[in-house]
User: Fold these one by one.
Assistant:
Number 1:
Amino acid sequence: PAPSSPSRSSHGSRSSPRIVLFPSAGMGHLVPFTRLAVALSAGHGCDISLVTALPTVSSAESRHIAALYAAFPAIRQLDLRFAPFDASSEFPGADPFYLRYEALRRCAPSLLGPLLAGAGASALVVDMALASVAIPVARELHVPCFVFFTASATMLSFKAYFPTYLDDVGAGHGVGDVDVPGVYRIPSSSVPQALHDPDNIFTRQFVANGRALATADGLLVNAFHAMEPEAVEALQGRFVLSVLPPVFAVGPLMPVNDLRETGEAAQKQGNYRAWLDEQPPRPVVYVSFGSRKALPKDQIKELAAGLEACGHRFLWVVKGAVVDRDDAGELSELLGEAFLRRVQGRGLVTKSWVEQEEVLRHPAVALFVSHCGWNSVTEAVSSGVPVLAWPRFADQRVNASVVVRCGLGVWAEQWSWEGEEALVRAEEIAALVMEAMGDDAMAVKTANVREAASRAVVDGGTSYLCLAAFVHRCIAPR
Ligand code: UDP
Ligand code: UDP
């Protein structure tokens, strides 16, 4: 792969830092990076270049990037073209997004230097999945390197502490409960599944990146103090780890309205907007498990029966495969014609991408049954929609614990996640949805979290000040 040259030749001045943003793969990483790009470019007058690894893993990513450049021509495009990376023999059965992280990690040492020099970068912001390979390259060029953590502050504290935990327990011991200093105990059952296996591709990256955090010039996290006070204070006060660099809690980064799908992709999205508009205020349960994973087929059937039995209207985004390009099957194959007929009118089920941010802001939506990918959580916060948490994998149980602690929603902790066999039954799902839909106290608490988020991001708020402090560091690095 070779980086393309930036579209303009002027270099960043002292008053307008020239910042290169380098996300890794998957919408869960790309979306917060594009929000950061827009906040820095349009909001703080920075000169922003975004590194784009092509071809993207999913088509959702390529559409999102195209929409970003169309709406924000001031953001420069730095393309990294990829030869196919076949590591399936090295990591049999590995997740395609993790393989892409690995491919990026392997090419970063040789590619990143020329790319930064060509862009005249005054600072680099890399995704947490690339930290350990990117920081040494930036250091060599004397370019300050910041790590952007696209998940929760609680998860960042866990990640920063986890290598120390491993060193303390010693090799050969399983991962138990992890007491993150200054934060709280992450039970073994909430530790991302992969981390129980020291040889897993994800674990190797996670630990290498965790160790590298101390060598960054600063850490950005899409979180805000009022929602995760323990974690933000423990990170900023260096209780988690005494050697941590400054931590800038800049969230929740605001969604960018102009990035809607257009053309054929918009048509494929079908009629969910019209359907939502037809609903009276607040009867709809929105159900989505994010862009990364598909529920097992038998769990999809239980969820279908649960939604049918709960009696509420629902909008359900179903994924049948990990990567959207592979998801060709029909809805009726997954759910059965009879189910689709029975719920017609009351429930809308779709396999296509929906503009989730727009859905959550729609007055018809009252509850979000969510896997608790961190972006989904932050979007629920900004739109004030209570969450019924059903974490499935990776950091999602940690995020679900944040959801409960801050008052954003509820979590049935005994519900299974990937790797556990027990199915969550239709009756349990229906009962919890009904309870959450009738929980007025929860709706009030959720509204309070939204208020706190609004206060954090306006001029003078904690997140606003953190972002401004970060920009200042890029102008006048220490
Ligand atoms: N993560 C991390 N370092 C990495 C990769 C992932 O800290 O090198 C963390 C982070 O908390 C992230 C979680 O692991 O949110 C799951 O990451 P993954 O990329 O699997 O999931 P996604 O964010 O795409 O849902
Ligand atoms: N998303 C969306 N429409 C969909 C599925 C996902 O807009 O049909 C967006 C969602 O709003 C979020 C991102 O994709 O911004 C997914 O990130 P998240 O961290 O919630 O979960 P992941 O997909 O990484 O598991």
Number 2:
Amino acid sequence: MAADIEYDRYDRIRPIRWTGTALELLDQRQLPFTVEYLSCSSSDDVAAAIHALAVRGAPAIGIAAAWGAVLAARDVDAGDGATAAAEIESALQRLNAARPTAVNLAWALARMRRALAGAGSDWREVLEREARAIETEDLAANRRMGEMGASLIAAGSGVLTHCNTGSLATAGFGTALGVIRAGVAQGRIDKVFAGETRPWMQGSRLTVWELQQDGIDATLIADAAASHLMKSGQVDWVVVGADRICANGDVANKIGTYQLAITARHHGKKFMVAAPSSTVDMDTASGDLIEIEERDPGELLGVSGSRTVAEGIQAWNPVFDVTPAELIDAIVTEKGIVERPDAERMKAVFGA
Ligand code: MRU
């Protein structure tokens, strides 16, 4: 199946570029009208970029943090990895604190720590190699998941996606959007709908732009139109990504995912979560233990920087929610597909 997918056509955007001395991030705050890379020359620059959503999406923030660790070590003078690790620990903690919900951030930093701990005098090369490996493994996982997820979708299907889970959110190709790319390339998906994903508008600013780069037609809907769309019969699958998948199969993802899962079940539509195994957190038993990021209510009080809400109005802005495992038909990872996830089926694929 992989041979069917022309990756040159379907995988061209790269949100993260390592120059050898700096990390360049495609500044997602400025898309779709300005395509500009933000240069980070320190780990604190990277932490600030992650917090401000210049780089976003669970896998992408893990990869950026890994390169941030390389930057943190740039001026460190140490004879071995363990000494270097101690020197950069506070910088790693600042990277880790940039956003709380996506486990990929802590996962990538834990990998960087482990690589350093075992390294000798060549620790600098080891650290850089590990960051590169995290990035290339993510791309390979996405391409694999794309095929695996698409294989569940029958020819002639319509899909709805949420947030942005594409190349912009990963090392490339995307998770849920990778499934959609593969499904379109293989002729399984005829119709793609994307929700605008208020309040940050990842769907309208990023997802439909990404698909346009590939020549894939996508139809934007208001988030509030999802139930009506499902009732109209134009959608067979809802396909989304994840920020953290718990040991019992509960999934944290962009706010609004939970209500999509509820309405999909009500209308007899299938619900798929596609994510690399770096998003699986077998140490968190269930979704109620996940810290849900709450961002500045100001994100809700206006559109594109212009205030649309009367002064003095309060807003609450949780930016993720948890979809319970029982509403999910399939969790697709590069390690395997967990259908109708629960603790036992998760353990069978991901171990204890
Ligand atoms: O706040 P964001 O834009 O970082 O949220 C992103 C999402 O919720 C994505 O769906 C998730 O990270 C998966 S991206 C492959």
Number 3:
Amino acid sequence: SPPLRILGIETSCDETAASVVLRDEEGGGRILGDVVLSQLEEHSAYGGVVPEIAARAHVEALDTLIEEALLRAGVTLKDIDAIAATSGPGLIGGLIVGLMTGKAIARATGKPLYAVNHLEGHALTARLTDGLSFPYLMLLVSGGHTQLILVKGVGDYERWGTTIDDALGEAFDKTAKLLGLPYPGGPAVERAAARNGNPERFDFPRPLVGDARLDFSFSGLKTAVRQAAQSLEPVTEQDIADICASFQRAIARTLKDRVGRGLKRFTGEYQSVDRPALVVAGGVAANQTLRQTLQSLCDGQGFRFVAPPLQLCTDNAAMIAWAGAERLAAGLPADGLNVAPRSRWP
Ligand code: KG4
Ligand code: ZN
């Protein structure tokens, strides 16, 4: 297909983002302009994302961010081939803001609109950053999702595993809260563990390890952390460091088992794939213990481990623009302006 320039819009959670991405004739991708505004400050006092506050913050910021992304890309709406906006899954208020804005631009310019599944954006990012070819495996670990997905083609995905309770990021956030650490909890738990935490001190549960399915479960871990903390009152700095290190150790072991099983299944089903790849995405991908675990797992099973730069692992609009570009290039039809946002979209 000819070179494509796509405007992407992302508003499904607590990041307002706009981006212009180029897809060249060979299928390579380049980010021309990219802006992300985090609402962390607005929500931190509440210890989590407040949907109404998020929706209002998207309304306030989105127009300016779109202008800024176009400016940085050195293009105007005339140069854009299509608009891609996240239409689910996520918080409905934010989705309405982003999708309606995308529709308005599509209506005003006469350009096609692609309503993009947020998870598809995460799933295809590795093709933008690393030019991966299909099929590959993706582990998505964020505050809202924990999924192992087989990426077979554009619009062609198989979910191999998901969490049966908490998302992994949620487990980090809840553990941090229990220990009196700040929000968001992931980075706080990682920092505490790094302060000489002893990962051997607590033998936390590793749910579903050994299970034949590829699902995850993290709520029991949180309960065990609570019990450990209660048994220690008053909890010292060293206790917190040890709990956090042991918590990360339990997660590493769980992922090693669950994802390792997924890699085996992949090599079983795709014996002809030369250099199979595992891609990681989502905010928890920032965690060093997790990265090391996945890296050594991949080394051991002959997989290439692909971790896109962190700003493209967490929520952004470049991945949404790219998903739109892939669909356009694959000849998939655009969406009608009557397309509805979906808070749930498996
Ligand atoms: O992808 P993301 O930025 O937003 C969505 O969930 O949509 O992921 C945020 C999650 C939060 O739960 C946060 O605590 C977690 O990612 N996180 C981490 C780290 N940095 C962020 N978890 C563990 N270790 C980290 N260094
Ligand atoms: Zn996300």
